[in-house]
Structures are given as C-alpha cells and as structure tokens.
Design brief:
Length: 315
C-alpha cells in the first residue's frame, strides 16, 4: 500500500510518498507564501504533488492522503479552525479541497499527534504498545499511544502534554496560563534560563560558547556544561529536574513502556537522556515498585511528520 503524507509547518509544506512499511519513496516540498490565501497555497501544493507523483511513477496506486498540521482543527470535517502561524488559513476546508483536486480520501490530525503516530509505528516506539512522545522545541508538543492506538480525547482536543501545570503561578506560558510544563521544558524555556544565568555570571563559559555559536540557543548550555562550566551545570540541572518531573507525572498517569523525546533539545542524545534516566531511577519511575520506563530519542527525524501522516491513511 502507498499513501501520501503531508507535514504542514509555518514556513513550508513537505510531503512524501510512503509505503505501508514506513519507507519514504520520494519527497517534495514548497515554501509557504504567508500573504497568499490558504486556498491558493493548497492548490499550489497540489500542483507540486501531482508533478512529483508523475515524476516518481504515474502508475502508482495511492490509497489516500494524510495531513499533519499545527493549530486547532476540526479533524472530522477537515477544517482549519485557527492556525497561529498561518492566519490566512483560518476556516479553510483543507481536506475537501485536496480530496477534490487529487481524487483521494484525505485525513488530518495535529502535527504532534501525527509525529507520535509515525514514531510509534516505524520509529523508536515500534516495539511498544504504550508510549508517550514529547517534542521539545519552541513549545512542548506531545502525543499518547495507549494499547497501540492514538489517544487524543474528546473532539481530538486532548493530549496537550505541554500544558500540564508543574508550578502553580509559575512562568507565563504561550497558552495564557502560568507554570505549564512547556514553560520549563521547551527549548524556549531553556534559552530563557540560560540568558538569566549568563546575566548573573559574567565569567561563565556560556558567554564564550554563545560567541562561538553566534547566538544564544539551547546548545550553549549543553556545550558549556560539557566543558565543566558551573553556571551551565546549574542551568542543566534545573532543566533536567523540570523535564524529569514532567515525565514522572506522565509515568504515574499512563505508565507507558517508553517515553520518546524529539526536537532540537532531544538531539543532545545520551548526554541529556542519561541525566533524566538517573533522575527517574532515583525517583523510582514515579511510584515505588512500578515498572521501569524506557527513555529514547525519536529516530525518524524530519520524516516523522510525513510518515505519521501517511499512517493516518493506512489506519
Ligand atoms: Zn500552557
């Protein structure tokens, strides 16, 4: 079986033909013109898609098209309600539009759920039936798989794992509340804390590292703490504590077999994961005597969204 998986972001739309073993056969992409209407942009992407299918193999039999995109969606009707990075797409009947142009059934879900599905079926989560995925980026996205099925709550509006409050009246979150996990465990939060610590510690190596990197990003604290900088180690420790406490909450609620981390911060790999594993072990994985929860880095990289979107079709 073959399907198309589409990953819509704020600056580009990426697509791929994927087979039902999770293999990407061909990729295509288009930059989004934010000043154009959603309808025009989707039509333009359909042109890209049609050309790519013909270039790859015009006799291929496609089962359908899956889409992952950020924002609030009516997934049953295939309508974009609001998408913060693509305001001109609000109200767009995206599934109907693509289905009509391509003559194929179209399925849509939010980007975090779709990436989770990809990792669960064909990535780091493929050996497990119960998993939590957390994407540590600008925000914290997440997805839940229970007994091999994506769980996203009533009207698909649940699984907002980034907006669990871990500190009442804490840091302000993008959602309007305070103290959310996202406000402590996202790359944005790590950078905020890094800058604060740098202001306090003019002698910290973090100043040199940020000059080497040309900016203050999440890598600054990892690199400086690897080199033994005390201020960076303090930032790291706080970050690990918050990230781990959040994960412990998910362990207690869902008792997954594995937690898969993705996003730029997760790419630090075992340097970060070992510290989180140590914390989880010291806190008995949530409850005394409860089973160990594996911690892994997502393995599909930038393809997880496209592969996961294709899974919407296969399932
Ligand atoms: Zn929030």
């Amino acid at each position: 079986m073959f399907a198309i998986g589409i990953d819509i972001g704020g600056t580009s739309i990426k697509g791929a033909i994927v087979n039902d073993t999770g293999k990407v056969l061909t990729r295509f992409a288009m930059d989004v013109n934010k000043n154009a209407s959603g309808e025009d942009e989707v039509n333009r992407f359909c042109d890209v898609m049609i050309k790519s299918i013909n270039d790859y193999d015009n006799s291929i039999k496609l089962e359908g098209i899956g889409i992952g995109m950020p924002g609030i969606l009516d997934m049953d009707k295939g309508v974009v309600i609001t998408s913060p990075n693509l305001p001109k797409w609000n109200g767009l009947h995206i599934s109907k539009l693509i289905s009509k142009r391509m003559g194929l059934p179209v399925y849509i879900n939010n980007d975090a759920n779709v990436a989770t599905l990809g990792e669960a079926r064909f990535g780091s989560g493929k050996e497990y039936s119960n998993l939590i995925m957390l994407t540590l980026g600008t925000g914290v996205g997440g997805g839940i798989i229970i007994d091999n099925k994506l769980y996203d709550g009533n009207k698909h509006m649940g699984a907002e794992l980034g907006h669990m409050v871990i500190r009442v009246n804490g840091e302000k979150c993008g959602c309007g509340r305070r103290g959310c996990f996202e406000a402590y465990a996202s790359a944005t939060a790590l950078i905020r804390d890094t800058k604060k610590e740098m202001d306090k510690c003019p002698d910290s190596l973090m100043h040199d590292v940020s000059k080497e990197l040309g900016k203050i990003n999440a890598k600054v604290v990892f690199e400086a703490s690897r080199r033994g900088d005390k201020a960076a180690i303090r930032v790291m420790k706080r970050y690990v504590n918050y990230l781990s406490e959040g994960i412990l909450n998910y362990c207690n609620i869902f008792r997954p077999e594995v937690v898969v981390l993705s996003g730029g911060v997760a790419n630090e790999g075992d340097y970060l994961l070992d510290q989180v594993r140590h914390y989880l072990k010291n806190h008995k994985y949530g409850m005394k005597g409860s089973p160990k929860v594996e911690l892994k880095v997502a393995s599909l990289g930038y393809d997880s969204g496209k592969i996961g979107a294709a899974c919407l079709v296969f399932e």
